[in-house]
Amino acid sequence: MLTLLELTDIPAVAASSLDEAVLALEECQNISVVVCDVYLGKESGLDLIERARAVTGRELDYVFVTGDPMGVEHFPDGMKPAIVTKPVRPRELIDLLKRLLENRRQE
User: Fold this and answer.
1) How many domains is the chain partitioned into structurally?
2) What is the CATH number of the domain that holds 85?
3) Which of 5, 36, 58, 63 would be a feasible disulfide site paired with 45, CB 3.0-4.6 Å?
4) How far apart are CA 53 and CA 76, in angstroms?
5) Are 43 and 29 in contact (CB under 8 A)?
């Protein structure tokens, strides 16, 4: 996925765990959109929302990838992140990310 994003001029950073993701968010202050799988083995991608807020103090846009969209009904503070179901269609994900990034630029 990282290569696909880079090929479409969407800057990206990869992380293989929640700890790595939080560290990347601390180190790269220009990150504004996070794409994350909901199920990460023993961890939940949904936990990243609270951890990222606590560590960075920033509000980010989230895109959660899941094979089970019914399993992602509860989000903090009533937020409604984008949900992309597996198998991910690359064009759909790229278009969504470009829209989110463009909205951020216009803020």
Assistant:
1) 1
2) 3.40.50.2300
3) 36
4) 11
5) no
> What does the alpha-carbon distance between residue 78 and residue 26 come to, in Å, rounded to a whole number?
24
| Residue 69 near residue 86, CB atoms below 8 Å | no
For 23, the domain range is: 2-106
105: left (phi over 0), alpha (psi -120 to 50) or beta: alpha
Output Rg (C-alpha) for the chain, integer angstroms.
13
The tokens of 89 are what?
């269609």
Q: How confident is the model at residue 8 (pLDDT cuts 50, 70, 90)?
A: very high
| CA distances (Å), origin 19, targets 7, 16, 60 | 26, 8, 17
Indicate the length of the chain as a whole number.
107
Q: Taking all residues of the chain, what is their mean pLDDT, rounded to a whole number?
A: 90
Q: State the CB neighbour count (10 A cutoff) for residue 34.
A: 20
